[in-house]
Amino acid sequence: MIWPNQVFGLTSQVFYHKLFAIYLVRFSLCKTWLKKIVNITSASKKVEK
Hints:
92% helix; rod-shaped
């Protein structure tokens, strides 16, 4: 027999793992976007000069 608190612990673990995965994906996406923005701004600054 599985106790309710065991089930809750498992589901919360899975939930936190999903949250962490989503956070990692978003963080990596933000990093790539920041790099793109920095590249664009530095390129435009070079053009201004």
